[in-house]
Every structure is written in C-alpha cells, then in structure tokens.
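Dear U.,

Please find below the material for section 3 of the report. The protein was modelled together with magnesium ion; I have listed the sequence and SMILES used, followed by the predicted complex structure.
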Amino acid sequence: MRRAPEQPVPASAPVQATAAAQPLGGEAASIVVPDASLFVTADPTQITQVLINLVVNARDAVSERGRILIEVDRVDLDEAYASKHFDVVPGHYALVSVSDDGSGMSADVLAQAFEPFFTTKSPGEGTGLGLSVCYGIVRQAGGHILLYSEPGQGTAD
Ligand SMILES: Nc1ncnc2c1ncn2[C@@H]1O[C@H](COP(=O)(O)OP(=O)(O)OP(=O)(O)O)[C@@H](O)[C@H]1O
Ligand SMILES: [Mg+2]
C-alpha cells in the first residue's frame, strides 16, 4: 500500500469509517468514542485499515451472535508502564480498542497471531496477514499494539 503523508487524524475517524464500511457481525455492536477532539499523527488510510482488519477478525470470531465493542480514549503511558513493555516511550497516546466476546485465542494461537501468514482459518477464508499488517502500521506510526484473549472469553486488541 502506498503511504500518504502523515497528518493529524481524529482518532475517531477510522472508527466511524470502519463502522460505516463493515456490516458488523453479531447481535450487538457498540462504538464508544468519549473524546472526539483526540487526534493522532498518521496516514488516515492505513489507520482505517488497522481498524477494518481488527473488526473483521472480531466479526469472524463472534459469528452470528456476539458483541463487538470499539472504544477510543486518551491514555498516558508512564515510566512504570514503559519499563514493563518492549520499546514503549512514555507519553500521551490515543487508545483504540476492539473487543469481542467470541471464540478467543488459545495461548498457542495468541503467541503466533502477529506472524505473517499465520491463520487458523480455512484456505480462502484468511491469508493470515491481517494482524501482521496491523502491527507494521501501528509501529510505523509510533504506536503499540497488544492482544488480550482467552479461549471462550473473547479478544481485545
Ligand atoms: N478477535 C479474534 N478472536 C479470535 N481469534 C482471533 C481474533 N483475531 C485474530 N485471531 C486469530 O489470529 C489469527 C491471525 O489473524 P490475522 O488477522 O492475522 O489473519 P486471518 O484473520 O486468519 O486472515 P486475514 O486477516 O488475512 O483474512 C486468526 O486466524 C485467528 O486464529
Ligand atoms: Mg484477519
């Protein structure tokens, strides 16, 4: 994907674009955007791609009945947090979170989820590139991406 110049993008913009572009699976999908004045410096197309990839994964995980929650908020990452997480620079960040109450991931799947071409989906249903693309885009933009998941408890990323 060609990169557009980085520019201030409202953190909520890709969320709204994703919601408009994707039929969200599940019986309920909620979007929480408490601070519309929150901006990130990024390529808007790429940031939207991250959201789309995460929402598609959530939709696949919840199948017909489940919940997907998209949240945007401010977060301050302090020295204590930075010292416990690889390569995190303390500072003010936008937190964008996509949670679902779908299948969740086993520890084994979780450990490989960011690897290019790692997929648990059938051939033709997944390339295994979604999360690795997300990782690259988020790191390029100076951000961090984390996954939390337990089998049967859903996933947040
Ligand atoms: N929200 C989620 N719930 C449960 N498992 C997930 C979730 N998101 C990702 N995974 C697991 O991580 C794997 C890798 O995800 P990734 O998005 O990289 O590839 P994919 O979804 O399989 O294929 P693609 O994104 O290319 O269509 C998935 O196959 C799935 O096993
Ligand atoms: Mg995917």
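For the text of the report, you could mention the following: The chain has five helices and seven strands.

Regards,
Y.
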